[in-house]
Amino acid sequence: MFLSQGAHACADRKDFMASEYTIRDLASEFEVTTRTIRFYEDQGLLMPERRGQHRIFSLRDRIRLRLILRGKRLGFSLAEIREIIDMYDEQPGEVGQLEHFLEKLEMRRADLQEKLNDIEMTLSELDAVEAVCRQRLTDMKKGKAAE
Amino acid sequence: MFLSQGAHACADRKDFMASEYTIRDLASEFEVTTRTIRFYEDQGLLMPERRGQHRIFSLRDRIRLRLILRGKRLGFSLAEIREIIDMYDEQPGEVGQLEHFLEKLEMRRADLQEKLNDIEMTLSELDAVEAVCRQRLTDMKKGKAAE
DNA sequence: AAAACACTTTACGTTAACGTAAAGGTAAAT
DNA sequence: ATTTACCTTTACGTTAACGTAAAGTGTTTT
Fold it and tell me: Keyword DNA-binding: yes or no (chains A, B) (predicted)?
C-alpha cells in the first residue's frame, strides 16, 4: 500500500494527502461503501486514475463525490446529478451551445426553486403542528397541576 | 358511474365536487397514474371509502396526495412521507408521547433544514457558473464584433 | 342486446441504486 | 514463507416504487 492504510503511517503523508485519496479514504470520510464509489465511477461520475491496479482519487473526485451526495440528499437521480455537476466543468465553447447551456441552467434553477418552495411550505406546516402540540402540552400540564 | 365521467355531466356536480373525487379525478389533477394512487392506498397513505366496488376519495385524501407528491419531489421515501404526514393528524394524547412527538418533529425539521442548506449552496454555485458563462458569452460576442 | 366505458383485483415485469458474496492480485508484517 | 490487509473484477441478489397486462364487474350509451 502507499496511501492511508495504517493508523501510524500518517505523519509523512500529510504533504500530498490533500490531493490524493484511496477509495477507503473517501468511503470513510463520506460514510458510503466502496461499492457505492465504484458504482459512481462506473456511471461516469468519478474518474480516478489508476496506479497499478488501484484507484487513486483526486481532489476533483472528492469534490464531485460531495456534490453527488448532496444531490442525492435532494432527491435527484444519478442521471440528473450527472447533468448538474457536469455543468460545473463543461462550459461549451460555441455561442449557440452557450445559450443552450444557459437554458439548461435556468431549468435546473427552476427545479431547485420548486424544491425550495416545497421545503419552506413543509417547514411552516411543521411549525404550525408544533405550536398546536406545545399548546396542548402546556394545557395538559396545567390541568394536571390543577387537580 | 356517479362522479366525474363525461364532459357534459358536470353542471349538477359542482355542489359536492369539492369533497368527493374518483380515482381518475385525482390522477388527472396531479398527473399520476391510477396505479400510483392505488399503490399509495396499499401503503396506507390514502384511505378512500368504498361505494359499491369503487373508491371515493375525500378532500382529506386529496390533501394527503398533494403532501405525498411534495414529499416525493423532496426525495423522501414513502416511509418517510408516511411519518411526516401522519404527524399532521396524529397528535398523541399522553404527555410522554407528546414529548417524544416533539423530538420527532425536531428531527424532521433538521432534515428539512439540511436540504434547504443543500439547495441554497447549489443555487449559489449555479449563480457562479452562470456568471462565468454570461461573461464568456459577452466576451465572445465582443470578439466577434471586433473582427 | 351489445358495445363502450370506467372501475376493480391479481399478478408478474421493470428500473435505479446499490448490497453481497466469490475469487483473485499485491504488498507489508510476522 | 505465509499470514494479513487492502485492493481488484465479476456477477448475481435486493428493495422501492411503480408499470403493465389480463381478466372480471357494473353502468351507460347505442
Answer: yes
